[in-house]
Amino acid sequence: MTPPDAGAPKRAAVVYNPIKVDIDRLRAAVAVSESEHGWAKSIWFETTPDDPGYGQTRQALASAPDVVIACGGDGTVRAVGQVLRGTGVAISVLPCGTGNLLARNLRLDVNTSHLERMVDYAFTGFDGAIDVGVIEIDRADGGSEEFAFLVMAGVGLDAKMIANTNPELKKRVGWLAYVDAIARALVDREVLKVNYRLDDGEVKASRAHTVIVGNCGTLPGNVHLLPDAELDDGLFDIVMLRPEGFFGWARVWVGVLWENGVLRRSSMGRKLLDLRQKPVRAMRYLRGRRLHVDLDHPEDFQLDGDELGLINGFRAHVDPAALVVRLPRDA
């Protein structure tokens, strides 16, 4: 990466998904902000169906930008973040997708009617560092691949849900399309047989419908799946969901919506939860820096809401404070 010229005006690079953004409005907003704050003309890179942002971000880095604005859905943000990991160059997230998972967990404004204000933050905000998840997956065909993720990786039922999401319905009603997918995924009663190792612990066996490894834990609808997850604590939060029958699923929803979403938000609520003598069998929470998982058969896999096919297992670790993120000064 070419180092920036200290005497030259700052410059932004924009990596955008043309399907997700109103490009004319975006270009106008960037032009206003860069002019108002004395920055040079931004450079632009359009993603393609074959490359959601990896190659474009590498091209952007060659021009030594001061910030890379990622405009698109979660796939675009993840691709840009993966390439920027460890470079010290900040990513500015401009949420334009359905889930906007990282933006929600950063508590950014996901209302697209406020696009101009969100663009301006890229030129006026401050920089903070967040952790990045790094995961090596074993493909069902015997190959392996490594990815970075910013929000969550999941195998089993949650990945099936994403794979089952109707893309046309998703375009019309946004993240609510996942409700339809959940209903169809729950018909699948298949249980995963999992061998896992957390950090330097011993190998353990478990059964679950889904295993989710989270760098952060809030989903659309303000659902707190991983209530203790933090983007900058150097740890993964992990949940294994293994409900049995209708009442098991009901217990999961009570745990996620009521206990995580309400009780854990107050000191009194946390005390009430601490008084509970028995853990909830349907939900098992773990925390650590490294997780190794082997499956007894190939299962669907997802990263940050993108379905990535079948895997036999994975090895994940936390890369602490590896990604610089541009945030609003009033955050």
Automatic annotation (TrEMBL):
Entry keyword annotation includes NAD: no
Record GO terms (molecular function): ATP binding; kinase activity
Positions of the DAGKc domain: 7-139
Alphabetical keyword list: ATP-binding, Kinase, Lipid biosynthesis, Lipid metabolism, Nucleotide-binding, Phospholipid biosynthesis, Phospholipid metabolism, Transferase
BP GO terms, sorted: phospholipid biosynthetic process
Needed cofactors: Mg(2+)
Short name of one Pfam family: DAGK_cat
Cellular component, GO, one term: plasma membrane
Family: Belongs to the diacylglycerol/lipid kinase family.
Protein name: Diacylglycerol kinase
